[in-house]
Specification:
The structure is a single chain. This protein has 210 residues and is mostly helical. It has one domain. A two-stranded antiparallel sheet has the order 1-2. The radius of gyration is 18 Å and the shape is globular.
């Protein structure tokens, strides 16, 4: 590792560590097939039929893709699967890693990890209620990446890579909602939430079921 490599301070297991931002050509090439894999998921059954199983298989698939990325460099952060937008979150991480090392990349990675830490303490209901803020945070990170690459992502267009990834994440949110209202324990937890939080989740359910 040369003295000119850039490093960023991040929090890992409660400790502040320096993480190198250098990315090898192998890592750059690896993110392409991994990003392609994030666009595809078909467990062979509807998320309405078995929402919990669908979510488990979806998370396992995302974690498998994440391992393909991080195993190439032990310095990379091993991210746990986020409760909402797990694919879009990993896509954003991969896009940041594919950037040439620079101060802008350091800033983008630091901002992304800061957002991730703020979500980790949420339970499923909190994640559902705040899903839009998670999406907004990730889009903001992607905007920074686009400025580095000189590209432009179009997450609202389902014909694009991020758009197709978000389509699967939207199904995952739907599955979380169905689990919340069909599982007695989850449903009781939902009813115990503050009125505006419970109403936000119910509004989301109405929106996705139309």
């Amino acid at each position: 590792m040369s003295n000119q490599d850039l490093w960023v301070l991040v929090e890992v297991d409660g400790q502040c560590k320096s993480v190198p931002l250098t990315i090898s050509l192998l890592m750059l090439a690896l993110t392409v097939p991994c990003i392609n894999d994030l666009q595809h998921f078909n467990p062979g059954f509807s998320h309405y039929a078995e929402p919990r199983k669908w979510l488990r298989l979806n998370n396992e698939h995302v974690n498998e893709i994440a391992q393909l990325i991080i195993q190439q460099d032990p310095a990379l952060i091993n991210l746990e699967c986020s409760k909402v937008y797990p694919r879009f979150s990993l896509y954003t991480y991969a896009r940041i890693l594919s950037c040439p090392h620079s101060l802008k990349k350091a800033s983008a990675l630091s901002e992304f990890l800061k957002f991730r830490r703020s979500w980790e303490s949420w339970d499923d209901i909190s994640a559902l209620v705040n899903h839009q803020s998670v999406r907004d945070d990730l889009v903001a990170c992607l905007t920074s990446v686009d400025e580095i690459h000189g590209t432009q992502d179009h997450p609202d267009d389902n014909r694009t890579v991020p758009g197709r990834i978000l389509t699967i994440d939207a199904i995952a949110i739907d599955a979380l909602l169905w689990e919340a209202i069909t599982d007695p324990t989850q449903y009781r937890r939902l009813l115990k939430r503050r009125i505006h939080e419970a109403q936000s989740a119910l509004n989301l359910l109405q929106a996705v079921s139309r």
